[in-house]
Write a structure and sequence with these properties.
Largest sheet: 2 strands, parallel
Shape: elongated
Helix content: 40-55%
Structural class: mainly alpha
Distance between the termini: 136 Å
Order of helices and strands: HEEEHHEHHH
């Protein structure tokens, strides 16, 4: 170890790279100017796209039409014929129903439809008119307990009638089968001609 008063032999740091500050300051100024020009150009393109407010679907999402069915899938088939749920708007295939619902309710799909994720604020008149529509629908579709009992009784009677008709059809089929067997037994000439003569007992 060297003494504090003595001349210490150190490492020469002259090999370190020295940066030209003026050069880098000039580069930074040029980069800032380019960024400002780019921002000005993007602003001058036109006003931002005005998207419609989010609205509810006027169609029902079909999730069960292909339930329980088999489908042959080939790697060269178009997207619409591959396994899963196909979205024609985004041109993609989603593998299961939960992810398909997430997709059609998601931001990307709604943007492709031209809608934002914001909901339009309803006015007082709109809310009141909606209440009126729902009240009319409830009155038109309402029924009493007596109506319900009548409907249940009617369904039970229809079910009993179907069962009775099934039993009658079975009885008729049995009668027809028995009649055919009797005709075959009564006509021994036809039986011998067809080669059924050896079915009787061997005892005479």
């Amino acid at each position: 170890m060297s003494q504090p008063g003595s001349n210490a032999v150190g490492v020469d740091n002259a090999y370190r790279r020295k940066f030209n500050r003026e050069e880098y300051a000039e580069r930074a100024r040029e980069r800032e100017e380019k960024d400002e020009e780019g921002r000005f150009k993007s602003k001058s393109k036109g006003p931002p796209v005005q998207r419609k407010a989010l609205k509810h679907r006027d169609y029902e999402v079909d999730l069960i039409s292909r339930l329980g069915k088999t489908q042959v899938v080939t790697p060269i088939a178009p997207l619409s014929q591959q396994a899963g749920y196909y979205c024609a708007v985004c041109e993609c295939v989603v593998k299961d129903s939960a992810n398909y619902l997430d997709h059609i309710n998601g931001k990307k799909h709604q943007r492709a439809l031209g809608m934002s994720m914001r909901v339009e604020r309803a006015s007082l008149e709109q809310v009141q008119s909606r209440f009126e529509i729902l009240k009319k629908r409830k009155v038109a579709g309402s029924f009493t307990e007596q109506d319900l009992d009548e409907r249940i009784l009617k369904q039970q009677q229809e079910e009993e009638e179907r069962k009775r008709q099934r039993r009658e059809r079975k009885k008729e089929k049995k009668k027809e089968k028995a009649a055919e067997e009797e005709t075959e037994e009564r006509d021994p000439d036809v039986a011998t001609m067809m080669g059924f003569g050896g079915f009787g007992s061997s005892k005479k």
